[in-house]
């Protein structure tokens, strides 16, 4: 925990850039929505600096130009059987049909068993990894992202159990990180991950200040983006996520798009553009629509507050 404190102080001392910044580390955390057709061009169009995306699955999103945003397949959760090879076969066919696959991502929040997590035991995850993920590295030189655990303490325990079950046969190249909470918590968490896995670079694949005020959300966004850009061991980051403010399950003020599908200030900054002044508004049915994807928010927030 002592190293953690050092990280927080170093992070807070980092100066805030005053002009909008661009960064080749930025990617898109893609979630399906009823407005995909209208909103997709925002992310892969000329005004966007994003370089990569993932969509929690292994089929590229038809509305996103894969030559602009490199597709990163994910094996989301437990396969239907212990001989299943669907993910492996799909990635092989993508490669065979000419799609460049440089990275794949392991399981999504396997330690999370309430909405959103893939709720997978470490033993099954290790067996699945060795069968379907590890060969992709040997056969195609694909770099492998460790399972993306939640930002709560159960995440560290799960990941440790996973590597133990792997018995040296899961050669993860980088470690994905999720965080919902304030910047101090994020900095401390990232420091703790680096302290625990000092041999791996990091991707921050889901993060936001959940349910904050608009001002706090913008300050959080700026601080974290500037910090990730300055950290050599963070090679990729994707702010959560590709959806409008009225269906956001992390609160309307964190969103990159307004309820009408216009870029908010945060959305514009993330793409490397100037602030738009568009104010996001909430909607009635926020949680229901997205419950699939970021849901360990509450657990993560409670952990921050304790
Ligand atoms: C965030 O950064 C942008 C430019 O990157 C700047 O214009 C804006 O004032 C900053 N906002 C906050 C709240 O820090
Ligand atoms: C998103 O939509 C695509 C295309 O309709 C579908 O193949 C995919 O399974 C959906 N993903 C999720 C996570 O619902
Ligand atoms: C790991 O690999 C070694 C060498 O191939 C093998 O003997 C061992 O059974 C493997 N362990 C697991 C858990 O797959
Ligand atoms: C880092 O360490 C983990 C856990 O010991 C190991 O499984 C993984 O292969 C290592 N990664 C690299 C890139 O050396
Ligand atoms: C983790 O942090 C330490 C200290 O900043 C750094 O030296 C190390 O390179 C980091 N790990 C990786 C994989 O970059």
UniProtKB/TrEMBL annotation:
InterPro entries: ASL1 (IPR053183), Asl1_glyco_hydro_catalytic (IPR024655), GH (IPR017853). Residues 1-19 form the signal peptide. GO terms for biological process: fungal-type cell wall polysaccharide metabolic process. Coiled coil: none annotated. Gene3D superfamilies: Glycosidases. Transmembrane segments: none annotated. Residues 27-270 form the Asl1-like glycosyl hydrolase catalytic domain. Keywords: Signal. GO terms for cellular component: fungal-type cell wall. Pfam families: Glyco_hydro_cc (PF11790). It comes from the Eukaryota. This is Asl1-like glycosyl hydrolase catalytic domain-containing protein. It comes from Friedmanniomyces endolithicus.
């Amino acid at each position: 925990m002592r190293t953690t404190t050092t990280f927080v102080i170093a992070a807070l001392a980092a100066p805030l850039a005053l002009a909008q910044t661009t960064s080749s580390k930025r990617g898109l955390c893609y979630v399906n929505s009823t407005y995909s057709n209208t909103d997709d061009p925002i992310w892969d169009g000329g005004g966007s600096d994003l370089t990569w995306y993932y969509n929690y699955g292994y089929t590229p999103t038809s509305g996103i130009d894969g030559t602009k945003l490199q597709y990163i397949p994910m094996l989301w959760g437990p396969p239907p059987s212990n001989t299943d090879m669907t993910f492996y076969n799909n990635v092989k066919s993508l490669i065979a049909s000419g799609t460049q696959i440089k990275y794949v991502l392991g399981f999504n929040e396997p330690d999370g068993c309430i909405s959103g997590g893939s709720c997978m035991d470490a033993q099954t995850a290790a067996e699945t990894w060795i069968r379907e993920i590890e060969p992709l590295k040997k056969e195609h030189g694909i770099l492998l992202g460790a399972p993306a655990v939640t930002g709560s303490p159960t995440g560290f325990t799960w990941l440790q159990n996973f590597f133990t079950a792997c018995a040296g046969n899961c050669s993860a190249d980088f470690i994905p990180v999720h965080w919902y909470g304030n910047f101090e918590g994020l900095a401390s968490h990232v420091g703790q991950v680096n302290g625990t896995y000092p041999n791996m670079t990091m991707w921050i694949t889901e993060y936001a200040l959940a349910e904050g005020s608009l001002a706090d959300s913008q300050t959080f966004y700026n601080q974290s983006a500037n910090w990730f850009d300055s950290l050599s061991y963070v090679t990729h980051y994707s702010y959560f996520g590709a959806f409008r403010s009225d269906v956001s399950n992390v609160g309307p003020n964190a969103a990159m798009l307004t309820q009408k599908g216009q870029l908010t200030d945060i959305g514009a900054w993330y793409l490397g553009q100037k602030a738009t002044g568009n104010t996001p508004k909430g909607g009635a049915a926020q949680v229901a629509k997205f419950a699939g994807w970021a849901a360990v928010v509450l657990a993560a927030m409670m952990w921050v507050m304790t």
